[in-house]
Amino acid sequence: xxxxxxxxxxxxxxxxxxxxxxxxxxxxxxxxxxxxxxxxxxxxxxxxxxxxxxxxxxxxxxxxxxxxxxxxxxxxxxxxxxxxxxxxxxxxxxxxxxxxxxxxxxxxxxxxxxxxxxxxxxxxxxxxxxxxxxxxxxxxxxxxxxxxxxxxxxxxxxxxxxxxxxxxxxxxxxxxxxxxxxxxxxxxxxxxxxxxxxxxxxxxxxxxxxxxxxxxxxxxxxxxxxxxxxxxxxxxxxxxxxxxxxxxxxxxxxxxxxxxxxxxxxxxxxxxxxxxxxxxxxxxxxxxxxxx
Length: 292
Ligand SMILES: CSC[C@H]1O[C@H](OP(=O)(O)O)[C@H](O)[C@@H]1O
Ligand SMILES: Nc1ncnc2[nH]cnc12
Hints:
By secondary structure, the protein is of the alpha/beta class.
């Protein structure tokens, strides 16, 4: 029976997870360098978990400095089957209040200073990002957050900005006109890289503020964000435990969205034209598809 191994990426204010049995830390390296921090391995029931704090312990890495490729590669190399990202985000719509959770299912990528693909250099791939999250895993994560006591909104568009500065009022109003629901600085290119690594990805946005568009509120500051996270990170951590408890004892079947084998439709470089060094480097994330 195929089992679940959950990769959990913790964002701002979420640097640890609870309830792990057989907890151990492992320092790893990948062909794209070191991930943000040591991986924390453990299990809840028969579900294995691998936790990685996105900004490193002590929040050392800015959103532009996070080694997104190394993080996803490290999770893939650890045998992770599905990735749940937990991210602090600003609300761009009245109905998402600080403290609420939003399981985003669409992204707009406005980041520009990050490596966004494992491919290139003699091996080209174009994965689909039409549906960037795994609908099954996102629903499971949303259920788990509800079971942990959160008010959860299912579906919505997360706009990823480069940062590290927060948005201007004009930008915040523009993103609202675009129909975006929440704003953060990290889910892209994380979701794109997870897709290239054939890892079903879901994100639970924890709303911490109203960015700067709402006239009756002060504009977002790190202090606001951390205050709300201090009150809500326990719910985020509990959601992870609930998710693992629900999946324990169940069989994992491939994502119904075809994500586990999505590279079968994405690789374009002719075999004779492939760069052997790049192919070697890609084995850890794309070995399955490259050896077909
Ligand atoms: C601390 S406020 C800005 C910071 O918070 C969010 O982090 P994460 O997505 O890792 O939870 C946002 O994306 C920024 O990185
Ligand atoms: N308003 C905001 N903009 C960007 N990233 C955020 N993370 C938390 N709140 C945010």
